[in-house]
Amino acid sequence: MKKMITFxxxxxxxILAVSCGKNGEIKQPEPISEQxxxxxxRLAAYAKVEFNDKNTDLSGLTSREKKLLKVxxxxxxxxxxxxxxxxxxxxxxxxxxxxxxxxxxxxxxxxYVKINYGPYDVIYDEARFVGKGPEVRPIVGGFYPTDMxxxxxxxxxxxxxxxxxxxxxxxxxxxxxxxxxxxxxxxLYYPExxxxxxxxxxxxxxCDNPSLKNYLTxxxxxxxxxxxxxxxxxxxxxxxxNIDIVIGPIENYEDEMFGYKTAFECVIMVKDxxxxxxxxxxxxxxxxFQCNLPTDGDYKNDKLGGGNIIQVVNAVxxxxxxxxxxxxxxxxxxxxxxxxxxxxRKLSMYKNxxxxxxxxIVKPIGEELLDAKWAKYVDAKxxxxxxxxxxxxxxxxxxxxxxxxxxVRKALKQFYSPIEECKADILSLYNHKLLRDKKYYNNExxxxxxATYLPGLYRSIRFGTGAHCISNYIQLNYLQTTGAIKVVxxxxxxxxxxxxxxxxxxxxxxxxxxxxxxxxAAGDLIAKYGQQTGEIETNIELxxxxxxxxxxxxxx
Length: 556
Prior knowledge:
Number of helices: 24
Distance between the termini: 37 Å
Helix content: 40-55%
Largest sheet: 5 strands, mixed
Radius of gyration: 24 Å
Strand order of the largest sheet: 8-9-10-12-11
């Protein structure tokens, strides 16, 4: 459905009315519109960061591998184009309409639309900032009919049980079919997929590494057949490769109605083998983390460590879901529990993203919000370590409900993503305690971890919406309510004597929700703790001069 966009702009023709002096000198511009001033301010909240071969080490790549990067980037652009269709119903219409205007004002709006992949602001509660349409991003995204309700979908599935699997499948689009609903596989719905698969075949032809060649070939086949299992398994078998890539339908955050559907993205990575070596101790301790989870459950006996991979990489291309609004700094994939059971998961840490975010965002937040005796402990290595153990912790805990074959993701539906993100964060903290108990970390480093954790919470809270934001509301509000974190004379201090006890309490609540697939308890927890308070709002205002995130560009 395409509609003519009526822009909420004071003017798309004249940006500024100016009075001029001699030789055309601008003496006094008239005040710009309030709406345009708002967009300027919001654009400024994203610190522009360009990654290129001057600040990212590609010296380990052969000339042939550098050619491979270019072909993979072409594939990434195609995946990015598919995501524009999934982000929201009118994302492309708004983007292309703005692109027709040759004014500075229109370009500013267009730049902000590109950051948000549509006219809805990721940071500001997904509220519309340009164009005519729904005031808030439709929860159906681009995956269901815009006028479909949750009750309608669930009733149709109940009345047509043979269609349930296809309609709930993570790789289908739901459309209207007469008076009913119909599932269409991504492979048939998106015309770009044929070209995308062909690009991956072309990239495979440039591969000298057999495992990467095999993965790209299988990924192309997965795109064509709508079946990604074999390529996910092959991705876990990559060996001795300098280049890695995540491409295709990956995360389910964009489906805010059910959390069933996955969105396209592409991350192209160049590995940093030296930095990766430092993280292998985390992998060696995964079974230790699992069997010492602060709760009961048979899943604590699951063995996890063997197949899991931890790698440090530099991102050389981002496109699609991972680039929308706030940028990802790490990922634990694949999400398919069948792959996790068979091979484990791969934890990728985006080194160049982490460094940029710590320097421009996390450290300044700590200086503003923490008491001086805690602010001095905010530390770049602790930030990296926390994020790494966050990704490790996604692999921990139950994968299925009470030993059944019902995935936790499907049982918790729209609440799964914030609950899962909360689990990963809170277990990252708890696992730091476990490593201190083993004398791997000393008390000084743990101080750095918990001091860096708090500004890290505000880093994500300032994203405004989404799973990570809700997850961090839960953590901050719970730990404050229980006294683990306090405000003294307007600054945060941490009550070390009970901090990890309260971390364990929250971890148990989250793990029990997942193990039981208790959607009511998940909703109740979010309703009680997963909300912005007046204090949080005040603190966010204090941080307004600090960038909320980075706007990344990749020129290789």
